[in-house]
Amino acid sequence: MNRARRPPPINPSTNTNPIQQPPHSSGTPLQGLRTKLDPEQIPSTAIQFAAEEDRWSKESYLTVGNQPVPLSASEYHAIDQGNSTPRFLRPTIYAIPSSSDLQSATHVPLGIHVTPLAQQAPEEAPVPVIDFGEDGPPRCTNSECRSYINPWCTWEGGGLRWICNLCGATNDAPAQYLSSSSTERLELQRGTVDFLVPSAYWALNPPERLIHSFVPVGTEGNAFKHNPPEIKSPNHLGNLVTPRERGTRDPTPMNYVFAFDTSLEAVQGGFLSSACKVLIDLLYGDSQPENQESDGTDQQTAISPYWNPESKLAIITFDRELCFYDFSPGSSQASMMVVSDIDEVFVPMPAISSLFVDPVDGRQLLQQFLVDLPNRYANTVCAQAAMGSSIAASLALLSQTGGKVLIFGTCLPKIGLGMLADRESEKSVYSSENDPTLFQPRENIWKELAEECVDCGVGVSIVLAPSRWSDLGTIGIVPQLTGGDIYFHPKFDPERDYAVLYSQMRRMLDRETGYQATLKLRCTDGLHVKAHYGVCLERSTSEAELGTIDADKSIYISLDYTSALDNLSHLTLDTISSLINQGGSRSPAHSQKLSLSEQKQAFFQTALLYTTTSGERRVRVCNLNLPVVSLAGNVFRYGDYEGVVAAMAKIAMVQMLKRSLREIRESLTAQCAELLLHYRQHCAASSMASQVGLLY
After folding, report:
1. Which burial class, exposed, middle or buried, applies to 2 when counting CB atoms under 10 A from its CB (0-12, 13-18, 19+)?
2. Of the four, 24, 195, 237, 277, which is 20 to 30 A from 506 by CA?
3. Cβ atoms of residues 675 and 108 within 8 Å
């Protein structure tokens, strides 16, 4: 078959009517601002990551020095020289602007990311634990400061007195300091230490409420038994009742409550059986239930290394009813107790001790129960689950001691405490001005439940595996305020998601965890805490409360400069009179309250008061000493822009409750543009106008 031959190619030199070239590649180059960028001047993140890895594989990071701060994802070995490592305290700027005007001119957020229980590298020295006995750790006697002794305090009088580096107050040194050298006092060498504290630091009993989410378990051990509470005006947060004396409770090892959803969706989707199998594997590995007798040594070594051997656990199942399980020693199997009233939750036993089981001593009973649990509900027809009531029931079990709650749920709680209904026009809300309503709790009872958990020292984590829409904006407020987590597995598939679920639960049990926690940041004069951003309950700007806190929890604390009125708030009538007599000149006592412009160093100290999983009450103290700078170039030079981006992200997530996502995205874009603009103005004014201003 004959085919038509292609025409020969056109020779441009002989073509009388050539095709015109695009305007951008013909004629003279465009003059002015639009010039070509040199790609070699644009920093490469891949090259930077490789250089970071090579550097920290050869040297250690010293917390006092001129080394650049390692990237957050870098693997490095840090040596604590008096400043806490970036794992514990990571400021957005490693040089504090001397005034609010300078900080505003640079548009760099000022704050500190605090991870008090951060996981260290295996080769690093562990955080020292120091015990001062019943006297407790030495603290500043200034009632407005109360900071802990640290490496940045100065000494006078031959070591008889120490001067607080935060407020300048003079304090008497403890007697034991006179008989030991400074090298023996680790609190004077390390930036991060743990202090064992006496009974004065123990957690308070939870305050009485006019309305509880559960029926309290008797009055045994109640702090109000002989001191009737004095009723205060109820507020919108929790209807609290202020007692004359709340009293404290002894620190105990942290206990756990596991609540399993036994509704139709959880059973048919395999989520219930997967959750039970995960718990068996975490406690006992892949071994089978014991059918033969064994000696005590084998019984002790049978427990998994992920589980704290001093902790106990209780189990609750929930659908339209709440089921508690009694693991009394000597029983052949766990006995079930049913609570049908899911609106007024109560514990069906006056003494709850038998509801908690030691996984070591009660291994045969507990393991066989977890194996049989999915079969008990194999023929269920109940399609509803009261998740809110299960949280209240778990809180009732832990209200006297505190602890950790883990909820395994699948469906929207349409019954029981805090019941929710489906949204009628959910899809129409997305990407509109009303999308903040998707992230706000629809029922205030969920927020009140979270606050009651924090008061009792209880943290709640939720493993949610829904097959359809679930109101995370409402349900998620409980883990958010109590220091818990949300593990989201939509349309759960056991074959696909079991390994992920197992790794998440293993990490939850394996990481360092504390409960009944309170976090406070103390700053040098001239700065104060503005707000806390993270999984915590902020009742005041001075401190944050958490039911539980672990190694993966980081809280961003934004800082602000003390105003002129705040600088004068400490003045007494005598001081004001002396200022008038001196013609307005400042006295030496007043000079300590000046702005940062007259200081060379800025000091920060965080204190986390918490109870360990083994039942010790401690205070983890982290210290940081940063220089004060007065040039904008130094602010950008010492900025940690990973910390800046993380701060912007955390603030944006809080704003999701009030502003639309479109406005938040536009605000983030504007913040980044302003940051680059002011960097060009203050640090790159001499560069070409066509040069891209990048911070690196």
Report:
1. exposed
2. 195
3. yes
Going through 146-185 in order, the beta strands assigned E by DSSP cover 154-156, 161-163, 170-172
Do 548 and 98 meet the contact criterion of CB atoms below 8 Å apart?
no
State the number of CA atoms in the 13 A half-sphere of 351 facing the CB. Answer: 4
Which two structure tokens, joined as six digits, stand for 130? 């120091």
Phi, psi of 335 (to 5 degrees): -95, 140
Could you please report the per-residue DSSP string of 55-88? HHTTSPEESSSSPPPPPTT----EE-SSSPPTTT
Distance CA 111, CA 538 (A): 16
329 CB-side CA count, 13 A: 6
Q: Residues 95-109: pLDDT tens digits?
A: 999 989 999 999 999
Is-contact 556 526, C-beta < 8 A?
Answer: no
618's CB contacts (< 8 A; 6+ apart) are: 129, 194, 195, 196, 197, 514, 609, 610, 611, 612
For residue 136, the one-letter residue type is: G
581 by DSSP, 3-state: which?
Answer: helix
Label residue 467 exposed, middle or buried (CB < 10 Å: 0-12, 13-18, 19+): middle
State how beta strands 129-131 and 192-196 pair: parallel
561-608: pLDDT as tens digits: 986 434 444 445 555 455 455 544 444 433 344 456 567 899 999 999
C-alpha dihedral sign at 194, 196, 197, 199: positive
How many other C-beta atoms lie within 10 A of the C-beta of residue 445? 17
Bridge partners of 688, per DSSP, are none
Query: What does residue 350 show for φ and ψ, rounded to 5 degrees?
Result: -65, -35
Nearest to 407 by CA among 259, 265, 256: 259
Q: What is the dihedral of CA 569, 571, 572, 574, to 10 degrees?
A: -160
Give the largest CA-CA distance in the chain.
116
DSSP letter at 207?
P
Q: Which two tokens stand for residue 7?
A: 């025409």
Distances (CA, A) of 481 to 10, 440, 452, 539, 552: 74, 13, 10, 11, 15
Distance, in Å, from the CA atom of 376 to the CA atom of 374, rounded to the nearest integer, reads 5
CA neighbor of 546 nearest in space, from 519, 509, 520: 519
Residue with tokens 């250089």: 51
In 149-197 the beta strands, taken as DSSP E runs, fall at 154-156, 161-163, 170-172, 192-196
List CB contacts of 456: < 8 A, sequence separation 6 or more. 206, 395, 398, 399, 402, 547
How many whole angstroms separate alpha carbon 346 and alpha carbon 656? 36
Q: What is the pTM of this model?
A: 0.84
pLDDT tens digit string along 131-186? 999 999 999 999 999 999 999 999 998 888 999 999 999 999 988 777 666 567 89
Tens-digit pLDDT profile for residues 230-259: 333 333 333 333 434 568 889 999 999 999
Tokens encoding 178:
């006179």
Please tell me the total number of residues recorded for the chain in this structure. 696
Q: Which letter, b or e, does each residue of 670-683 get, where b requires 16 or more Cβ atoms within 10 Å of its Cβ?
A: ebeeebbebbeebb
Tens digits of per-residue pLDDT, 341-376?
A: 999 899 888 767 789 999 999 999 999 999 999 999
> What are the C-alpha distances in Å from 24 to residues 18, 39, 646, 692?
17, 19, 40, 21
